[in-house]
Amino acid sequence: MNIAIFASGAGSNAQKIIEHFRENKTIHVGLIVCNKPGAGVLKIAADNAIPVLLIEKERFFRGDAYVPEMNLHEIGFIVLAGFLWKIPDALIRAFPNKIINIHPALLPKYGGKGMYGMHVHEAVIASGDTESGITIHYVNEKYDDGEAIFQATCTIEPIDTPELLAQKIHRLEHQYFPAIVEKCIEKL
To answer: Which is the catalytic residue, given 28, 73, 103, 174?
Structure first.
């Protein structure tokens, strides 16, 4: 099974997934898809000899959503790892229940349009919540709305800032995301 990792930023989750599957005989990271030419994930792809597909907004949302390229690379599963664009219906239809995302909060709280990265952590801290975490979920037509697959939590201490919470969330993401990706693929 070839998987595509969609990422928009530094790529730390993509790196952990690549490392997790490096010696796997049946699951292979076959493509990195990115919407930002200078993103750190592109260096990670180059360092690991993984092909890259740089995408542009018009074709992604109003064209073929790059489905032909997914087919060309024989992609069977898509992992969103810090990818900031909403997934178009055409791609969801082409990969039913085969696209998952990781969200840096305990959905359904702190999800939806505009709730990504530090925006999420700032909202969680401002709310006074005593715990946060990650949610790994299937992707549907709405932001952060698909069926939850897995959640992990961390405690928020009174001294925590959004930046400290972000560090805790990254540790959870790196610890759990690669193994959950593998379990989802094994269920297919």
So the answer is: 103
